[in-house]
Amino acid sequence: MTSRTEIVEDLMGRFPHVPREAVIKEDLLRGGLAFDDSALTDNEHGDVKPKSYFIFSFDHRTLPELGTAALRRPPEEIVLTGGPYELRRTVVSVRTNPASPYRVKTGDDGLMRLYLDDKPIADVGVPPMPDYYRHTLTNGKSVMEVAPTIQWGYLIYLTAFRVCQYFGAKEECQYCDINHNWRQHKAAGRPYTGVKPVDEILEALEIIDKHDTARTSQAYTLTGGSITSHVGGKAEADFYGQYAQAIEERFPGRWIGKVVAQALPKADVQRFKDYGIQIYHPNYEVWDKKLFELYCPGKERYVGREEWHRRILDSAEIFGPRNVIPNFVAGVEMAAPHGFTTVDEAIASTAEGLEYFMSRGITPRFTTWCPEPTTPLGRTNPQGAPLEYHVRLLETYRAVMEANGLTSPPGYGPAGAGRAVFSVSSFMDSLAPNDEPAPAV
Ligand code: SF4
C-alpha cells in the first residue's frame, strides 16, 4: 500500500514547479490534521488564537466526535517551516481530522512539530492571541464571535448571517455545512449569533482598530448565507450592504471592504458599490453545468447557471473586472457519484471555467474543498478529491492566469511561496510574488 508520504513525495517530484509548501498545504486542507492534546489551545483564555468557526465547520468530524478538540479548540491556523522539505513559512487553516496521517504534537524539547506517517516534516508555529481578542463587547460577547480574524490577522471575517435560506436537501449546496454548523454550535451551548447586529460589529471593529496597532488587519469580508426573501426586512443587497455602509461611515477607508454574496442583478450590485464595498465575490462554486445543477440546487432553481454567469460578467461593469473575484470550491468536481472520474477530465472542465472568466479580465479564486461529514458530498466522499487534482489545479490556475496577462487578485495580501497568508487554499502560495509585504510570523 502506498503511504501518504510516498504520494506527497511523488507529486513533489512530478510537479517541481508547484511549490512543495503548496503540496503539503493542499493535502492538509483536503484531508485535515489531528492534534495531540498538547497542541490544543486554552480557548479564549490562553496565549494561542483558537479556531473561531468563522462560517463553516471546516472539520472532518462533528463537534461531539472531536473529543478534547471540541473542549479545547485547536488553533485557528498553523504556520509551517523547515523540516526535510525545507518549507518556507506556510500559513494553513486548521481543519480537524482525528484520523489524519498528519498530526501536530509537542515534543519532549517543548517544540511543536507536524508529523506525517509518524515522521516530523515541519516546525509548527501557532498564532498568538491577538490583543483585541482579550476584550469583550459591552454586552459580554467576544470579539472572536462577532468579528474573528483569519489569514494571520489580515482578514476580518464578518459572517453577518450565520444560516442560509437555501435550506434542506433540495436547496442547500451539497458541499456546504453552514446550517449544520449553526445547529451544532447551538447544541453545544456555544455563543453563535444567527444575525449579527450592526452595532455589535461596529463595537468589535472599534476594539480591533484600537488594538491592532501594527495594522495587520487589512480587509473585511461581509458574508453569510444566501437571502432569498428578507432578513430584518431587507433583501440580500441591502442586508449585507447596511454593514458596509455603517463600517465605511465609522472607519472610512480603514479596511478593504469585500462582500461574498449571490450573483445579483445589476441594480443590486450597484448598491453594494454605493455602500462602499470594493470587491465583490459572486461565487460560481463549480464550473460544469451538470454538476452545478446537482450540487447547487437552490441557486439553480432561483437564478440558474447561465443567468448566474451573466450577472458575474455584468458586475464587472460596476466594480471593474479586477474587483470581481468569484470563488469555486476546488475538488467537488471529483465527488462521487456524479463527478468526474479522472483528474484529466476534472482539470479540463475547471480550466474551461477559468478561461471563460480570465479571458474577460475576471480572476476567480478557489477554496479547497473540505468534505464535512454532515454534507451529502462529504458523506459519500470522506477522502475528498485526490491530491493530484489539487496540485494540478495550482499549475493550471497559474498557467491560465499568466496566459491572460493577469496577476494575483487584489485583497488577498502577499503572494508567493513563503509569503502568502491566504489560508484556505494555496493558490496565493503558488503564484509569483506581488508587491505586498509579507507579515512577520
Ligand atoms: S448558498 Fe450554498 S454555499 Fe452559500 S451558504 Fe447557502 S448553502 Fe452554503
From TrEMBL:
InterPro entries membership: Aldolase_TIM (IPR013785), rSAM_sf (IPR058240)
Official protein name in the record: Radical SAM protein
